[in-house]
Design goal:
5-stranded mixed beta sheet
């Protein structure tokens, strides 16, 4: 279940993933083409017992000591010593500014008594010269202080022909993959941020019992509709569920919620996608039907009333409730205020309740201009 939830988050945020991957890909390509190429020269050295040792016991002791790796690690420190680098640079006639772009490192190869010295820098020839010169000087130092073990050059450094960095194809591929990973994380994070915001927005606009818009948001939507489309015909209806009048204070909230949500579901099934439903009062719902004249609104609400008039099952034991709907409809025809329109529709539904006959729909006269309050 949780995996499917994350997959849906990723699907909704696919564009974030695509943008992040493309940005990373393009950035890597740009960096690869503007970055200074770096070359790496490397040399390898073998550490072994000194062949001048005569006694077999001394040889065995030397091998045992060598297996502890402390000696070979010390030799590695010699190879990357800053003192040896300075002395080598002075010998080659190089100053500190010329060495700023070069990095020296040495490592002990796994499961072997072999050291690898590397020098990285923008000039392949200079990197090679430095590698071999540093190695030579370090070997001389080591032989002065450690005579039990011998260190010899195994593979001298050769001038590299291709830079190890940047590599546009490799770097762009890695950037594309990392961008996709970062984009996926951002997509999930944005969904996790959006969901609480949506929940908060719904708390401000949705009536928790009926699942329709609350009255404040419905009225705000109505005002915006009339302000944005002042010359368009609009029908406003109030559906009062008179069967709940005597039960509203005694019905358990879960049952009241079930009844009102059933009524809202009936309305949604009969209305168009751009029609708006809101909870108007404790037992009444409001419906806004844009671009709908009075006769069409009355036919639509007539179908809704017939559906709402059917008994609603309250419990599993078969208890039912008849909602006894009454409807008032008022028409806006390009003049008048929201307050006048609301007063007309409330008056119409009040007349429908007073009549209490089979025709439970009252259409306020749309021939009379709506009066300003």
């Amino acid at each position: 279940m949780e995996l499917r939830l994350y997959l849906r988050m990723v699907q909704r945020g696919w564009w974030i993933i695509a943008v992040a991957a493309l940005v990373a890909f393009n950035a890597a390509l740009v960096f690869s083409y503007i970055a200074t190429p770096l070359y790496m020269a490397s040399a390898r050295f073998l550490v072994s017992p000194n062949p001048d040792i005569d006694k077999a016991s001394d040889v065995l002791n030397s091998l045992a000591t060598l297996d502890k790796r402390s000696i070979i690690s010390t030799y590695a420190e010699f190879l990357r010593s800053s003192r040896i680098l300075r002395e080598t640079a002075a010998e080659l006639g190089l100053d500190d500014s010329q060495l700023e772009d070069y990095a020296v490192n040495s490592v002990v190869l796994p499961d072997a008594n072999i050291l690898e010295l590397t020098v990285e820098g923008p000039d392949p020839q200079l990197a090679t010269v430095l590698t071999n010169a540093i190695g030579k000087r370090a070997v001389n130092y080591i032989k002065q202080y450690y005579q039990v073990f011998d260190i010899t050059l195994l593979d001298p450094a050769e001038t590299p022909t291709d830079p190890f960095s940047p590599q546009p194809v490799r770097d762009a591929g890695l950037a594309l993959a990392l961008g996709g990973i970062v984009g996926t994380a951002l997509a999930i994070l944005s969904e996790q941020i959006r969901i609480p915001l949506d929940a908060l927005r719904q708390q401000r606009t949705i009536d928790s019992i009926s699942s329709a818009f609350n009255r404040r948001h419905f009225q705000h939507t109505l005002e915006n509709e009339l302000a944005n489309q002042p010359n368009r015909t609009l029908s406003l209806a109030i559906v009062q569920l008179d069967g709940l009048k005597d039960l509203i204070d005694t019905l358990p909230q879960p049952i009241l919620q079930s009844v009102l949500r059933h009524a809202v579901s009936v309305l949604r099934n009969e209305l168009r996608g751009n029609d708006v439903i809101g909870r108007w009062g404790d037992i009444s719902l409001a419906v806004m039907l844009p671009s709908t004249p009075g006769d069409a609104a009355k036919r639509t609400l007539g179908r809704i009333c017939r559906s709402l008039a059917q008994p609603v099952q309250l419990t599993s034991e078969g208890e039912t409730l008849t909602m006894n709907p009454h409807v008032g409809i008022a028409i806006y025809q390009g003049h008048g205020s929201v307050q006048a329109l609301i007063a007309n529709v409330e008056n119409a539904v009040a007349q429908a309740i007073l009549r209490n006959d089979e025709d439970s729909i009252v259409l306020a006269s749309d021939a009379i201009p709506l009066q300003e309050n």
